[in-house]
Amino acid sequence: MTGATPARGHRLAFERLTKVYGDTIAVDEVTLTIEPGTFFSLLGPSGSGKTTVLMILAGFTKPTSGCVLLDGRSINDVPPEKRNFGMVFQGYALFPHQTVGENVAFPLAVRGINRAERARRVAAALDLVQLSALRDRYPKQISGGQQQRVALARALVFEPSVILLDEPLSALDRKLRMSLQWELRDLHRRLGKTFICVTHDQEEALSMSDEIAIIKGGRIIQKGNPTELYERPVSHFVADFLGENNFFEGSVIATDTTGFDYAVGSMRFRQHGAAGISGHGDKVLIALRSNKLTAQTTDPSKPCNRIEGRIRQWSYRGGELSLKVETAIGMISVGQPTWPVPLAPEIGKHVWVVWSPAATVAISDDRKMF
Hints:
The chain has a six-stranded mixed beta sheet, sandwiched between helices. Strands 13-12-11-14-20 form a five-stranded antiparallel beta sheet. The protein has a five-stranded antiparallel beta sheet with strand order 15-19-16-17-18, with no helix packed on it. Helices cover 23% and strands 36% of the residues. The longest helix has 18 residues, at 174-191. The protein is globular and about 75 Å long. With 370 residues, it is an alpha+beta fold. It has two domains: 12-236, P-loop containing nucleotide triphosphate hydrolases (Rossmann fold), CATH 3.40.50; 238-363, CATH 2.40.50.140. The chain has eight helices and 20 strands. Strand 4 and strand 5 (73-74) form a beta hairpin. The protein has helices at residues 50-58, 100-110, 115-128, 144-156, 174-191, 202-208, 226-231, 236-241, and strands spanning 12-21, 24-34, 39-43, 65-70, 73-74, 85-88, 162-166, 194-199, 211-216, 219-224, 245-255, 259-264, 267-272, 283-289, 294-296, 305-316, 320-327, 330-337, 350-355, 360-363. The protein starts with 11 loop residues before the first strand and ends in a 7-residue tail after the last strand. Helix 2 packs across helix 3 (115-128) and helix 2 runs parallel beside helix 4 (144-156).
C-alpha cells in the first residue's frame, strides 16, 4: 500500500452465473468480464439481483449453476476466507468495543500476523484513508463518514486481491456521500486494484465507475462506461433508471444518411443517427433527457425540433429549474440551468420547447418484459 507503483488488479469473470431460490430466479445466467484494475459497479433497483451476485463473488452464497473466475481460474469451491477479498459493508460492521486501530488490525490478527507487522500495516492503512490521528478512538466517537473510512481501511489492510463494496455510502447524507465518492475514486486510482461496487444510486455509480453493468430481474440489461450508458441507453428501463427522460412513441416517416424523421401524433421531428431503423413506417420509441431541452418564449429561427406548450408546473432546485410543459403530444419535462435565468416561470405561460436532433436516442421498448 505504501509503494509508489500501484498494485496490478485482478480479472474477474462470471460465466452463466445463476442463483435460484425456490421458484425465484435471483440471478439469471449472468455472463460478464471485469478487467484488472477496473472500478466496476453493479447498478440496479432493490430486488434486481445485484447483491446476490456480490454475495456469490464473496463466497457467502453458492451459485445454483455457472462459474466465478479469478484470473481465469474457478473459485466456486474456494471458501470466503481463502479468496483474499476485502469487503466493505453497508452498515460498516465495526466492533464498538474496539478502537479504530484495533478494528483495522482485526483481519491481520485472525490471519496470525505478528504484532510488529500488524502495527506497520495498520499505520499504513489508516494513513491511506487519512485517519491516523483517530487510531485510539472508538467508533461511537467518530462520524459516519469516518466510520466508513475505518471500514475501508480494514478491508485494505491485509492487501486483498479485490475490493468488494456493498452499498458503501448509502448510510451517509448527500454532501458526505459526494465527498467520499471523490475519495474512493482517488483511492482506487492510487491502489490500482479491482473494485466491485454494488449500488442502487445512479449518481454514485456514474461518478465513481470505469464500467457499469445495469441489472434488472437478475439479468444484465446493459454494460458500458458511464458516458455510454447515460448518453446511449439501449432500452426504456435503462433510460428511465438513469436520470429523467421524456419518451415519445412515434413512427418513421423518412430516412437518409444522417438520420430520420418521425411523427408523434400530428407533429414531425428529426433525429440524427438511424441505428436499428429499417425504413418508413417503423414504430419507434424515442428517449429525450429533460436537461437537453430548452423552454423559451420566442419561436426559434434556426432549424431544430420544437413544440409549443404551456407551463403547468415548475420548481426551483437550486442549480436547475424544472418545468412540466403541456404540449400537443403530452406533458414534457424540461430541466435547465437557473443561471443565467432563461425565463421567468409562470403557470400557464406560453413557451416553445426546443431540442437538437442530436439530443434524442431511439431505444427498445422493454416495458412489458419485467
